[in-house]
Design a protein that fits this description.
It contains eleven helices and 21 strands. With about 425 residues, it is an alpha/beta fold.
Amino acid sequence: MALQLSKHEPFSLDRIFYYQEQMLRKLVPHLYQNSPFYRKKLDEAGVDPESVKSLDDLGSLPFTTKEELRTGYPLGLMAVPEERVVRIHSSSGTTGKPVIVPYTANDVSTWAEMMARCMTMTGVTARDRVQVTPGYGLWTAGIGFQAGAERLGALAIPTGPGNTEKQIEMMLDLQTTVLTATSSYALLLAEEVNRRGLRDRIKLRIGIFGSERWGEKTRTRIEELLGIETFDIYGLTEIYGPGISIDCPEHCGLHYWHDHLLFEVIDPVSGRQLPPGDEGELVVTTLTKEGMPLLRYRTRDITRIIPGQCRCGSPYPMHERVLGRTDDMIKIKGVNIYPGQIDHVLQITEGAGGEYQIILTRNMGKDNILVKVEAAKDQPLADLAHRLRKNIKTRIGILVDTEAVPEGSLPRSEKKSKRVYDYREC
Ligand code: ZN
């Protein structure tokens, strides 16, 4: 079923949409027949599954939300007989029940294939040694990277998360060439390698980092400290895991695998489909997933489809790096802002580092926002704070308090860095 495209294939968004339309025509009746969850949902929405012929018709189909997946706990969304399910993974359940995702053997294989494509896109080959520092177990990250590396024929070093001492020992002894990590753990490792003066003894050349948004400044700092090129990888547990899209050597967007995944961008408030190029919430329909297929799944991630072909020549379409999440949207002083916008301002602010925090407080009914930023090496802090305040006013249109702190003084994390601290009472 997989559509293998080569670089010689000319890029055409129309052809991609045509291909996806053909897949969609089969998908909706298939879901209606095989998934009790979707049969009920389509019936309730009054949709005749045979009537879905084009991508425009997609707009009339109901969305699937994370809350619904939780309601189906544990295996309510399984769309195949259990004998075909070979594995489950689970999203972290920070609030309420987690989501359990069943995978068939084909799903496991498709995911490994997508991960291998991701790695190939970044330049990883069978001769590389890939250190896998994301978590294993119910998490999708560790096993996903490992399966991709193995599919490619590379050597996987499954260290798993934490234990920086062991990570560095493996990196030196095995001469790791590719590091996979969350960006905050990559930063922690990079700073440790630098502190110990090991830069000349490591052989890293590529870093593949994901699972959180990370700004250009953090990227540059990791690249400089480790002497590597870094790539952003995207994915969600509900849809395979990491590896549904990846940065390419041009670094101007992430390529996604349109033969397995149909991407739409919608207005998060009205739910209306937006044309390619417009920014909104990413909605994903799985085209080949068997264990738990998803129809119009709302990711809550903010991005846009990039029209046109990438300079790298890849025939796969692209989306913008994720700017933030719809739930991270901060409403302050009547303006909606995403942490991603602060990243953008930091990029153009001279002397700013990549680490920052957004702290929201309320005093006498009035909202206050403080942006705390790390300075790049030995920058005068007061000047930096002043420049940042001015740039945020010009670029985002709001007046905020700013504070610059010395490099390395904001907390580093082995998992995801927390950016927004909201102390306002609801
Ligand atoms: Zn590209």
